[in-house]
Specification:
434 Repressor (Amino-terminal Domain); 2 domains; two-stranded antiparallel ribbon; 14% strand
């Protein structure tokens, strides 16, 4: 079956538009310029391709993409490691073969055991499509919302007005989340539920639509997060992401704090206010557990 190359071509165009001749280390070709970045023929020269070959790639008319061409494009466009990986994902399946992921998502036991040792900070376990698999009571106390297993963290982030109210740097956090979601779509282009969720968010949220059309990609990575808590004041966290080699689709989100900071001092108070998490929030009897009703 042939592959839709439109996403591959759109990403090339977006990265080409952001790279000027000066940034690429070449003299601009003569004549009027109608693009903000490199012309097609300039990028083709940098990549060692004919202009026609590169044009077919960008227009989605090239049936196959070789390893050598991917390396040349990565170098010419000065892609970082995450962008290069995304380009390879968009070039699949000729470059790599995927096995379909099981629909039912179960929290990884090892990540749950790790989470159980981190009850002094907010912790959240996400699966594919940013599905909530588990979290602790302190996360609820900080965010002010219950996130039951099976719910979508993206729905909370973009559809719950409280998210924009409490997350002081919501725009930065939201933009990075959309970039990570685009990365996931590149890895799972046949996940119809994921594609439908993205389409719906783009249709209903202009911020998501604008960030998505920028074609920026980011892997799940550390990012600061500021929370304006109504009783505890402003809380400063660094968000750290932990994955397990045998469960690459699951991400343990840990809200870390600086030792002896005001946030570190107030978290024990918030923890004392938090009600014990139930099975629905992934916790039972003091131990993190899998929610029996959680599905993919």
């Amino acid at each position: 079956m042939g592959r839709d190359r439109s996403a591959f071509g759109a990403f090339l165009r977006a990265r080409r538009d952001r790279l000027t001749p000066a940034q690429a280390g070449i003299d601009a070709f003569p004549g009027p310029r109608r693009v903000p970045g490199l012309r097609r023929e300039e990028l083709a020269m940098l990549a060692g391709l004919s202009t026609d070959h590169y044009s077919r790639l960008e227009q989605g008319r090239q049936a196959t993409v070789s390893e050598s061409v991917l390396v040349a494009l990565t170098r010419a466009l000065r892609l970082n490691e995450v962008e290069a990986a995304h380009l390879r994902d968009l070039a699949a399946p000729e470059i790599r073969t995927r096995r379909p992921a099981p629909e039912v998502q179960r929290p990884d036991p090892g990540l749950l055991r790790l989470a159980a040792t981190l009850d002094h900070v907010p912790v959240l376990l996400l699966g594919r499509r940013s599905e909530v698999l588990a979290h602790n009571a302190l996360l609820e106390a900080v965010l002010g919302r219950t996130l039951p297993p099976g719910s979508s963290f993206m729905d909370y982030l973009f559809r719950d007005p409280l998210a924009r109210e409490r997350i002081v740097n919501w725009a930065e956090f939201g933009a990075r989340s959309v970039a990570a979601m685009r990365m996931e779509v590149g890895r799972r282009p046949d996940d119809q539920r994921l594609l439908a969720a993205v389409r719906d968010l783009r249709r209903t949220d202009p911020d998501v639509a604008r960030w998505w059309d920028d074609h920026t990609v980011r892997d799940y990575a550390s990012v600061p997060k500021r929370i304006a808590h109504p009783e505890a004041g402003v809380l400063d966290f660094n968000i750290e992401i932990v994955t397990a080699p045998h469960a690459p689709d699951q991400h343990l989100i840990v809200y870390t704090v600086e030792p002896d900071s005001s946030t570190a001092r107030v978290l024990p108070i918030l923890a004392s206010w938090a009600t014990p998490a139930s099975t629905r929030s992934g916790r039972q009897g003091g131990q993190w557990v899998e929610d029996a009703e959680s599905g993919g």
